[in-house]
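Following the same procedure, the fold was encoded as tokens, giving this record:
***
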Amino acid sequence: MENHRLVPGSEGDNSWKDILNQARRTDLLADEDVRRQCLQIAPGDSLTVPGLVIEFSTTITPGKNFFGRTLAGGDSYFPPSYFATKIFSLGVALEGYKGMANPAANSGVVGSAGGTSPADPSASFLDPQALAATPGIYLIPVGVDSMRSPPLGDGSAVRTWAVNDVTIPLPFNIGASAFSTKALYQTTDSLTEPLFNLRKHPEFRPVSTTAAFSSSIYGGGGLLQQSEYTNTRLVGRSVWNSKWKLVIPGYKLLNDPNDGLDRFISTVKDIKIYLVTYSYAGN
């Protein structure tokens, strides 16, 4: 609740439901950012795609928390003494979600790492508020990335970029596919694939609690490794972005997307972002 500053109890729950209802959309495809950046978000039946689009911004600013609110007790922030703080992987926890099957793991491996394997599945389908056990969501950056310049002494400037995440076709037909009939890359017409085509973001699985994320993120030799149940699609992007969109399609919650959204709004009490990052001080 670091972003919206909601008070605990029924009053805060009602305000949270109002926020989710305001984020509700009758058709996600009407949102240009969602349509351009979310991979295969439409189920292919030519119908509307009801869902949630939750917008927020992030920052690395002295005296502010991660969401740009005045820093208060219990808040989190990234230190501005590092000129660049980037994403290695991220995950999302939907606290209060009913019916979630947090990804199962080998109990021996998890136990040796100090974790606990998920409990055996229960009859969640009997719960009138239960949702799909393996929902899919999207998190897309649609604003500008910001970082500081490497510091000279105690001074540095904030710099921003509009990042275009695009593809470049292979310079030769490495897979012997039908994309090219030429032996070498000669012009932008060498391949039938579009040059600088936008790389879309695939969905990933959330969990129901941050306890599902592994606390062990360093491997042998101190190398950074992907934490359990996180997604590396945004690797290299700055954690500081002027606008993010968390996209939750209703049909990935239940067969009836509107019923799924109703249950989601009624049960989910908080949404938490879990980040595994790496930083550069530049000193």
Notes: DSSP finds four helices and ten strands in the chain. Residues 10-280 form one domain.
